[in-house]
TrEMBL record:
Residues spanning the membrane: none
Name of protein: Cupin type-1 domain-containing protein
Biased composition (Basic and acidic residues): 465-484
Signal sequence, start to end: 1-23
Matching Gene3D superfamilies: Jelly Rolls (2.60.120.10)
UniProt cross-references to Pfam families, sorted A to Z: Cupin_1
């Protein structure tokens, strides 16, 4: 096993130097560009302009963490791309029986539950809304709304991925949390008022006050099992109002237990919201489950769906859409363009490559992404995602437009090349219409395309180059795959 691998490595190294030299050359005979000079990208290989950096931790305590992949114009400096107001992607992980303490943010969140179960409570129109969420649910929490999250999954980690829409943000860092509940850590925003103000406002003594504001020191994520009160967890599991008919909730008893418990998070929240404990439930929209929904598009090679504000109205407020794509091994999302939105993608499962092209027709990025990686593609930029040959490639993400974004496919049966086929287009490519028609009709599938069949070694340099590049990437990411004679992934005209 070892010997073949190391000789393979040697070949890869050789190929690597070749591919740098030949980078981005077009093959002869296709009317394309001539070979470009080397070193356009500093000779250092691919630039990963549209791959967002690894996530960094913005909050952490024993019971959980919040990591953020910053979408702040990563590519701007180097490529002159002015992206839309940035969106960050957040990863929230919570231990069993934990609580993400009440707070509000200067950014709206659209939460996607990846694993586990959650209860989310938030203030909506002066009432408390609580929702139980399960895997696949999409749910929006508006900027400025106080919310908390409880991991309600029995013995399960709760993992959520969210978009952090910063269009309303203060512009300080990724986002700003304002903790309502807290003590020494996190620090409650209430603690910023002077003692007299607080004692007066709460109508309590300073010692009572102090007993509240110095207790919490576990950080933003706290365990709920730590209390002596065994019924406490049960109360955390319950929904206080939601999912009950409006009028029944009017005089409910669940609230009473809260009233007895003299200093609850909710009381603190009510203080900030300036309301008595809400006795009524408020109508708000349900969560929307991505996985229950039939895909918009499905064929043998994969499926895709897009969630718009027509499916889930709260998306309109943030003007953010959610999509999900599942490709089978080797399948490809045909090169396409988002005419109206910038797209952020998070790899949920498997690996694949993402290719993004600059307006001037040069490769902006061609890189392998693995589970947890986040990539983005600016509006108008052509791109394509290709599953590795090892297994399915599942990703989901957010687009900066809540309406239907109508991606335009460049290649495939439903492509604009097909739609627009005619002498004009053929002329633009400088070939006869016959030849052109033949070329664009060769692909019978649309949108999600099968992997390339084993190709005879007739290709020009470009194909060879791609093959090398793919292998090189695979090598880089330590996918020790079998020798792959075809290797050809994408055939541009
Ligand atoms: C194409 O555009 C990119 C980004 O604007 C730039 O970095 C690159 O040098 C351009 N290449 C050519 C050949 O114009
Ligand atoms: C403050 O609390 C006292 C009893 O502790 C009560 O008599 C008084 O009415 C309260 N004041 C306000 C404004 O609620
Ligand atoms: C609460 O549960 C977590 C994980 O289940 C555990 O690590 C922690 O020690 C528990 N705390 C207490 C006080 O039981
Ligand atoms: C994605 O497709 C694979 C098979 O190709 C399947 O096993 C998996 O369940 C799918 N995932 C979703 C979320 O549909
Ligand atoms: C694709 O189209 C060609 C020509 O129309 C046809 O001969 C071929 O059978 C089709 N293949 C598939 C898989 O549909």
């Amino acid at each position: 096993m070892i010997a073949p691998r190391s000789s393979k490595l040697f070949v890869f190294l050789l190929l690597f130097f070749f591919s740098v030299t030949l980078a981005f050359g077009y093959s002869e005979g296709s009317g394309g560009y001539e070979e470009e000079e080397e070193g356009r990208y500093g000779g250092g290989g691919e630039e990963q302009v549209f791959l967002l950096p690894k996530s960094r931790q913005v909050m952490r305590s024993e019971a959980g963490e919040f990591r953020v992949v910053s979408g702040f114009n990563v590519g701007k400096k180097r490529s002159g791309i002015d992206s839309q107001p940035p969106m960050h992607i957040g990863f929230i992980n919570m231990e069993p029986k934990s609580l993400f303490v009440p707070q509000y943010l200067d950014s709206s969140l659209i939460i996607f539950v990846r694993r586990g179960k959650a209860k989310i409570g938030w203030i909506y129109k002066d009432g408390l809304v609580e929702k139980n969420l399960k895997i696949g649910d999409v749910y929006r929490i508006p900027a400025g709304s106080t919310f908390y999250i409880v991991n309600t999954g029995e013995g399960q980690i709760l993992q959520m991925i969210c978009s952090i829409d910063t269009s309303e943000s203060l512009g300080t860092g990724a986002f700003q949390s304002f903790f309502i509940g807290g003590g020494l850590s996190p620090m409650s925003i209430l603690a910023g008022f002077d003692e007299r103000t607080l004692t007066t406002a709460f109508n309590v003594s300073s010692s009572q006050l102090e007993s509240i504001f110095t207790r919490q020191q576990e950080g933003p994520f706290v365990f709920v099992n730590g209390t002596h009160d065994s019924s406490k967890w049960a109360s955390f599991m319950q929904l206080k109002h939601q999912e009950r008919p409006y009028d029944i909730a009017e005089h409910d008893e669940v609230d009473k237990t809260d009233e007895q418990d003299s200093w609850t998070w909710r009381k603190l929240m009510n203080f900030v919201v300036g309301e008595k404990a809400p006795k009524r439930s408020v109508k708000s929209t349900d969560a929307y489950n991505l996985y229950d929904r039939k895909p918009d598009f499905v064929n043998k090679y994969g499926s895709s769906l897009a969630l718009t504000d027509k499916d889930y109205a709260p998306l309109a407020h943030s003007d953010i859409g959610v999509y999900h794509v599942n490709l089978t091994a080797g399948a490809m999302m045909a090169p396409h363009v988002n005419p109206r939105a910038t797209e952020y993608g998070v790899v949920l499962m498997g690996s694949g490559s993402v290719q993004v092209v600059y307006p001037n027709g040069t490769s902006a990025m061609n890189t392998v992404v693995n589970e947890g990686d986040v990539f983005w593609v600016p509006r108008y930029f052509p791109f394509s995602q290709i599953a590795s040959r090892h297994g399915p490639f599942e990703f989901f993400g957010f687009t900066t437009s809540a309406g239907n974004n109508h991606p335009q496919f460049l290649i495939g049966a439903s492509s604009i090349l097909r739609t627009m086929n005619g002498p004009e287009l053929a002329t633009a490519f400088g070939v006869s219409q016959d030849r052109f028609t033949k070329l664009i009709n060769a692909q019978n599938e649309s949108a999600i395309l099968p992997s390339a069949p084993a190709a005879p070694p007739r290709q020009g340099r470009r194909h060879k180059h791609e093959q090398e590049q793919e292998q090189e990437h695979e090598q880089e990411h330590e996918h020790h795959k079998q020798t792959d004679p075809e290797g050809e992934l994408i055939e541009l005209w």
